[in-house]
Amino acid sequence: MVLTALRGALGFLTRLPVGGDESNWDAFRRAPVAFPLVGYVVGALAALPLLLPLPIPTAAALYLVTLYLVTGVTHADGLADLGDAAVVHGDADRRLSVLKDSQTGVGGLLAFGLTLVVLALGAFGLAGAGGRVGLTAAVAIALAAEVGAKAGMATLVCLGAPAHEGLGSALVGENSSAGLLAVAVACLPVVALAPVTGGPAVVAALCCGPVVALLVRSWGRARLGGVSGDLLGATNELARAAAVHAGVVTWTLS
């Protein structure tokens, strides 16, 4: 069951050629634990440039390139849609119509652009941290950031209510808070890395995902009446950017 759900999650959350069919998708949307499991795969692949003997700017750039080659732009599109909805005037119906609009406005460009810059600066610090304290810390923080971001998506899926019928409701409508226990268990391997790698920095990076998810959920309830698929993607992008910085800052201060 978990392996079937994982295959469906990889097919939905990444561009990896895993194949899959309707049964994989159905298993995934009923198993939020698959979200952080995908985070391990994406995080490990994205961290590969940090293992190479490259200049810091090059390693940071390749980290970003690898992320979007693996995950595609679906989550980034969700962030852009959220940015457009956040700046529009009107009620929940008006904001939902903006979310569904395929065109990207100034709000969306600003939201994605700022988040990308924040992530790039965090990646620069992450690559630098690898050079100063050893590769294991940098890789562990990158892994924790991705697992935490996906755990944030799972948090939304488990605690949110659908804002409207669509792809997001197929996930949110099928799960409850009970699914968070398995999600937490799936995150334990990252926590186990903390004493031998990045210490508190790994935990800080991991925790950003659920925290960002709760903030996005609060905004969604107040402005949209619930959670949409775009909010899931936006949570992933925002949580990753916050997590990389949280990990680097915590390591720097510890």
TrEMBL record:
<keyword id="KW-0812">Transmembrane</keyword>
<dbReference type="GO" id="GO:0008818">
    <property type="term" value="F:cobalamin 5'-phosphate synthase activity"/>
</dbReference>
<comment type="pathway">
    <text>Cofactor biosynthesis; adenosylcobalamin biosynthesis; adenosylcobalamin from cob(II)yrinate a,c-diamide: step 7/7.</text>
</comment>
<feature type="transmembrane region" description="Helical">
    <location>
        <begin position="104"/>
        <end position="127"/>
    </location>
</feature>
<comment type="similarity">
    <text>Belongs to the CobS family.</text>
</comment>
<comment type="function">
    <text>Joins adenosylcobinamide-GDP and alpha-ribazole to generate adenosylcobalamin (Ado-cobalamin). Also synthesizes adenosylcobalamin 5'-phosphate from adenosylcobinamide-GDP and alpha-ribazole 5'-phosphate.</text>
</comment>
<feature type="transmembrane region" description="Helical">
    <location>
        <begin position="133"/>
        <end position="159"/>
    </location>
</feature>
<feature type="transmembrane region" description="Helical">
    <location>
        <begin position="198"/>
        <end position="216"/>
    </location>
</feature>
<keyword id="KW-0169">Cobalamin biosynthesis</keyword>
<dbReference type="Pfam" id="PF02654">
    <property type="entry name" value="CobS"/>
</dbReference>
<dbReference type="InterPro" id="IPR003805">
    <property type="entry name" value="CobS"/>
</dbReference>
<dbReference type="GO" id="GO:0005886">
    <property type="term" value="C:plasma membrane"/>
</dbReference>
<keyword id="KW-0460">Magnesium</keyword>
<keyword id="KW-1133">Transmembrane helix</keyword>
<feature type="transmembrane region" description="Helical">
    <location>
        <begin position="33"/>
        <end position="52"/>
    </location>
</feature>
<protein>
    <recommendedName>
        <fullName>Adenosylcobinamide-GDP ribazoletransferase</fullName>
        <ecNumber>2.7.8.26</ecNumber>
    </recommendedName>
</protein>
<keyword id="KW-0472">Membrane</keyword>
<keyword id="KW-0808">Transferase</keyword>
<dbReference type="GO" id="GO:0009236">
    <property type="term" value="P:cobalamin biosynthetic process"/>
</dbReference>
<keyword id="KW-1003">Cell membrane</keyword>
<dbReference type="GO" id="GO:0051073">
    <property type="term" value="F:adenosylcobinamide-GDP ribazoletransferase activity"/>
</dbReference>
